[in-house]
């Protein structure tokens, strides 16, 4: 009885920790990138892509997101343990062990590769490249100030990957959409990085705010968000999307302007609002109006 109970007890422990695994990677933050993956999906399919593509694109997104965030937690564990902003995370608190988080990485990578296999040959062929990128970008802050831009491109994999999942091709329209996401996401990561300016300087960590100063970094964010808005507008024109798409685009631009107005070089107290709430509104409403533009065309 005891020999048979041990594996069962271990399984219960693993299952019981699933909520901890999910909270450690902040799965709810997928609300930023997932709507853009859906935008890539519906634009590639010119509507509903079918249940097979929809299900496996979601599985791939879950696997890639879990892999990326688990890798980030392990790679940056040393800094997380001494940064006041991140000391409450699961690894510094000992709630999860490094071995458990590495185990999450292995499982999520497997899930991602299986999902890519279920989609098409190009998705499977590119999946190791995407997996390597979303893990290795976490090392970038030790070597280059462009780490915030690299984070933007990590999130930009989502719409391109969804497009490939539907069509088996990486079309120019998908590249333009991914560029828009990279500029948008890279910009808000720079804003968020401004809150770690003093810590990063003291630890020799590289970032856009450390390189340009907070004022210079926020000016760059405005340029990047302008490029993102222009790219989304160009995408709508290129693909001949209906008027409702431009309603969503206008709302997104207004929210980007509002987001940038919330943060000032001498006042970063509202970064939490800018980073979480406003960015969620941008991606979700743009998805909604993109779907309406296609359905009602």
Please give a quick description of this structure.
The chain is built from 14 helices and no strands. The chain is mainly alpha-helical and 297 residues long.
Q: What distinguishing features does this structure have?
A:
single chain; 297 residues; mainly alpha; 14 helices
Q: Do you know the CATH architecture?
A: Orthogonal Bundle
Please count the helical segments.
14
Largest sheet: none
| Beta fraction | under 5%
The multimeric state of the shown protein is single chain
- Under CATH, the homologous superfamily reads UbiA prenyltransferase
Structural domain count: 1
> Under the CATH scheme, which class?
Mainly Alpha
Quote the CATH topology.
Tetracycline Repressor, domain 2
Q: What is the end-to-end distance?
A: 65 Å
Residue-averaged pLDDT: 89
**CA-atom Rg in angstroms:** 20 Å
Contiguous runs where pLDDT drops below 50 for at least 5 residues: none
Structural category is mainly alpha
Q: What does it look like?
A:
The protein has 297 residues and is an all-alpha fold. It has a single domain (27-295), classed as Tetracycline Repressor, domain 2. Helices cover 78% and strands 0% of the residues. It has 14 helices and no strands. It has helices at 2-16, 18-24, 34-45, 51-75, 77-82, 90-93, 98-119, 121-136, 147-167, 172-193, 197-203, 208-238, 243-262, 271-295. Helix 3 runs parallel beside helix 14 (271-295), helix 10 (172-193) packs antiparallel against helix 12 (208-238) and helix 11 (197-203) crosses helix 12 (208-238). It starts with a helix and ends with a helix. The mean pLDDT is 89.
């Amino acid at each position: 009885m005891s020999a048979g109970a041990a594996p069962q007890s271990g399984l219960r422990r693993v299952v019981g920790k699933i909520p901890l695994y999910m909270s450690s990677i902040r799965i709810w933050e997928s609300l930023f990138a997932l709507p853009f993956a859906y935008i890539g999906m519906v634009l590639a399919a010119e509507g509903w892509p079918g249940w097979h593509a929809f299900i496996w694109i979601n599985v791939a997104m879950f696997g890639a997101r879990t892999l990326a965030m688990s890798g980030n937690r392990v790679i940056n564990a040393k800094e997380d343990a001494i940064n006041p902003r991140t000391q409450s995370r699961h690894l510094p608190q000992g709630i999860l062990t490094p071995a458990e988080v590495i185990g999450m990485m292995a499982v999520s990578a497997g899930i991602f590769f299986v999902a890519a296999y279920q989609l098409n040959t190009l998705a499977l062929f590119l999946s190791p490249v995407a997996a390597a990128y979303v893990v290795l970008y976490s090392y970038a802050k030790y070597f280059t100030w462009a780490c915030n831009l690299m984070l933007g491109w990590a999130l930009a994999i989502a719409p391109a990957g969804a497009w490939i999942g539907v069509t088996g091709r990486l079309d120019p329209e998908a590249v333009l959409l991914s560029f828009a996401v990279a500029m948008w996401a890279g910009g808000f990561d720079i804003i968020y990085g401004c809150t770690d300016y003093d810590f990063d300087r003291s630890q020799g960590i590289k970032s856009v705010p450390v390189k340009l100063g907070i004022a210079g970094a926020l000016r760059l964010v405005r340029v990047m968000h302008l490029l993102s808005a222009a790219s989304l507008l160009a995408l709508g024109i290129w693909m001949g999307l209906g008027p409702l798409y431009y309603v969503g685009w206008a709302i997104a631009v207004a929210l980007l302007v509002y987001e940038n107005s919330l943060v000032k070089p001498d006042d970063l107290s509202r970064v939490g609002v800018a980073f979480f709430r406003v960015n969620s509104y941008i991606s979700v409403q743009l998805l909604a109006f993109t779907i309406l533009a296609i359905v009602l065309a």
